[in-house]
């Protein structure tokens, strides 16, 4: 046997079975539709850079689910949804307050009408300021001390049957 034929034999005898064995062994399962969509849902909003979380409002007709941006810092809360020209039907913004207090919002530099939903310390909706007027600097207050405020597209709360007393979880 020549050296070339020995090398050819060794390549076939050793490398080919090793390549086949390695390609057949995978520690990862094929992704299913649920894990693929979960991996694709953003945890940071592309425009605001804020964290995006799941939020649910339990109404008399059942749960209404949203993906909301979290305005956590005073600076993020001051900006809110100012200058935004659109908000998806199941999107919104949650403003967790540092302490339970009477809350008041306005629509300065806010282009789209919003439903401003005030949430009490028991996570139940206190009151809803529906279809607030874009650009208005008139105060929109809570009817009682709030621990958070949720903003949705104007008219969306009524459309989904969201009302005072409904439970909000996030």
Question: Topology, pairings included?
Answer:
Layout: H1 3-24, H2 33-40, E1 52-59, E2 62-70, H3 74-79, E3 91-101, E4 104-105, E5 114-119, E6 125-129, E7 140-141, E8 146-153, H4 156-160, E9 167-169
Parallel strand pairs: 2-3
Antiparallel strand pairs: 1-2, 1-9, 3-8, 4-7, 5-6, 5-8
Supply the key terms.
170 residues; alpha+beta; two-stranded antiparallel ribbon
Structural notes for this entry:
The chain is of the alpha+beta class. The protein contains 4 helices and 9 strands. A 7-stranded mixed sheet has the order 6-5-8-3-2-1-9. β5 and β6 form a beta hairpin. The radius of gyration is 27 Å and the shape is globular. The relative contact order is 0.16.
Describe the largest sheet: 7 strands, mixed
Number of strands: 9
In terms of per-residue confidence, which ranges show pLDDT below 50 for 5 or more consecutive residues?
A: 14-39
What does the average pLDDT come to? 85
Distance between the termini: 74 Å
Give the helix/strand class.
alpha+beta
Number of helices: 4
- What percent of residues adopt helix (DSSP H or I)? 10-25%
Shape: globular
Strand content: 25-35%
> What is the radius of gyration computed over CA atoms, rounded to a whole number of angstroms?
27 Å
């Amino acid at each position: 046997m020549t050296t070339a034929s020995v090398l050819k034999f060794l390549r076939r005898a050793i490398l080919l079975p090793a390549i086949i064995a390695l390609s057949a062994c995978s520690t990862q399962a094929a992704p299913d539709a649920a894990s693929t969509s979960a991996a694709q849902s953003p945890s940071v909003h592309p425009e605001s850079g804020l964290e995006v979380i799941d939020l649910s409002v339990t109404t008399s007709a059942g749960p209404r689910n949203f993906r909301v941006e979290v305005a956590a810092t005073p600076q993020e809360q001051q900006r809110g949804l100012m200058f935004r020209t659109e908000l998806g039907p199941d999107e919104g913004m949650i403003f967790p307050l540092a302490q339970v207090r009477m809350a008041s919002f306005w629509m300065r530099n806010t282009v789209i009408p919003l439903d401003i939903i005030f949430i009490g310390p028991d996570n139940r909706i206190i009151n809803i300021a529906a279809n607030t007027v874009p650009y208005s600097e008139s105060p929109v207050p809570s009817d009682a001390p709030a621990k958070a405020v949720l903003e949705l597209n104007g008219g969306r709360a009524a459309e989904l049957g969201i009302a005072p007393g409904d439970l909000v979880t996030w």
